[in-house]
């Protein structure tokens, strides 16, 4: 009775005639089992997928190995009710795992899906796998997970997710996994780890997070506190370091203070106030060089020059700066002239109005008022 099968890569020479069959016999070889295996072999090679019911007549298998066979999909129901303990599907071309694709494998303990092209996993893909102890999903194209992906896997001990492109993880992704001991997330794209997710890893013994672009802002504080609380659980070849922002690059996350990651500290507020003050005093300078104080004057003070006189020998360090200063001075002069004109015009109008009301008898007084104007 056949208990295990292994399909070699399609690239092997004369794959259909010179292939290795890994068979574990409980009693004696039965020709019916071998014939069924050959049928299964031809079906998988021809279709590049595991179709429904292909293993239905091999209920006593405990291990199936289908590596490097260019498998692109697995149909729901491909695995019937069987006592399979190990399923090796690495080095294929799988891109997606559908709901209930492994539902009948209630005795499976090891599932290896590494080195495929998996970019998405339906929330119910692992439904019903109550005995699963280890799942390997490393070296795929995963970027995120649905929250209930691992729900119901109460005996899951080891999850391998390294070498993917994971950018975020739901907070409740690993809730309800009391047996989880090792979680490998190194070489992904995680900027931080949610506090809710870390709280679900209290029973874990190893968390590997190296080679992630960790950003040290407020969102990194839960990870910092978790590392301080459980330093022995963070299994890394070197301390976890900040990648961003630039001022904190290569800083140990465990050594971060709250002030390091707060966006507005006392120093920052002082800088903002100082910058605002400079903006009020010299607006053109601050527009030219934002967030920097105006340059210090290194030349001694020169005598005052009349406003309508421009010295031809005076040169500035920068032509553009000189032009801006002259434009600013001319603008001030024009504004003052307009204000003075408006005041004088108002005074004239007021005097004329008063003149109409006054009596014209006192010519001497009118002459005096006119001279004042």
Automatic annotation (TrEMBL):
Q: Name one Pfam family in it.
A: LRR_8
Q: Where is this region: Disordered?
A: 280-324
Locations of Low complexity compositional bias? 298-307
Q: Transport: present as a keyword of the record?
A: no
Which ranges are annotated Polar residues under compositional bias?
Answer: 308-320
Cite the entry's keywords alphabetically: Leucine-rich repeat, Membrane, Repeat, Transmembrane, Transmembrane helix
Q: Where are the transmembrane segments?
A: 332-353
Q: Which domain of life is it from?
A: Eukaryota
Q: Quick check: keyword Transmembrane in the entry?
A: yes
Q: What is this protein called?
A: Uncharacterized protein
């Amino acid at each position: 009775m056949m208990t295990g099968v292994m399909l070699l890569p399609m690239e092997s020479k004369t794959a259909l005639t010179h292939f290795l069959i890994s068979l574990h016999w409980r009693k004696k070889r039965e020709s019916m089992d071998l014939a069924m295996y050959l049928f299964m072999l031809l079906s998988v090679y021809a279709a590049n997928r595991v179709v429904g019911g292909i293993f239905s007549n091999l209920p006593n298998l405990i291990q199936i190995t289908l590596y490097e066979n260019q498998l692109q999909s697995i149909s729901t129901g491909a695995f019937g009710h069987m006592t399979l303990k190990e399923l090796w599907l690495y080095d294929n071309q799988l891109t997606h795992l559908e709901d209930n694709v492994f539902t009948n494998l209630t005795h499976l303990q090891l599932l290896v899906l590494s080195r495929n092209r998996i970019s998405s996993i339906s929330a119910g893909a692992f439904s019903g796998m109550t005995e699963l102890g280890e799942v390997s999903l490393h070296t795929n194209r995963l970027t995120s997970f649905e929250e209930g992906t691992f729900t119901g896997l109460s005996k899951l001990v080891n999850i391998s997710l390294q070498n993917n492109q994971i950018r975020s993880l739901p907070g409740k992704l690993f809730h309800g996994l009391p047996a989880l001991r090792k979680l490998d997330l190194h070489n992904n794209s995680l900027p931080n780890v949610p506090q809710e997710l870390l709280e679900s890893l209290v029973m874990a013994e190893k968390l590997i997070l190296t080679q992630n672009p960790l950003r040290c802002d407020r969102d990194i504080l839960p990870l910092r506190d978790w590392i301080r609380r459980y330093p022995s659980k963070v299994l890394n070849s070197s301390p976890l370091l900040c990648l961003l922002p630039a001022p904190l690059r290569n800083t140990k996350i465990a050594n971060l203070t709250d002030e390091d990651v707060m966006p507005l500290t006392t120093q920052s507020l002082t800088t903002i106030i100082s910058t605002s003050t400079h903006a009020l005093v010299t607006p053109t300078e601050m527009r030219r060089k934002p967030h920097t104080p105006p340059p210090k004057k290194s030349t001694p003070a020169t005598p005052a020059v009349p406003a309508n006189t421009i010295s031809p020998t005076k040169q500035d360090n920068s032509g553009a700066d000189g032009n801006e200063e002259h434009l600013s001075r001319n603008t001030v002069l024009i504004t003052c002239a307009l204000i003075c004109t408006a005041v004088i015009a108002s005074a004239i109008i007021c005097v004329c109005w008063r003149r109409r009301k006054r009596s014209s008898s006192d010519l001497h007084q009118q002459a005096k008022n006119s001279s004042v104007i």
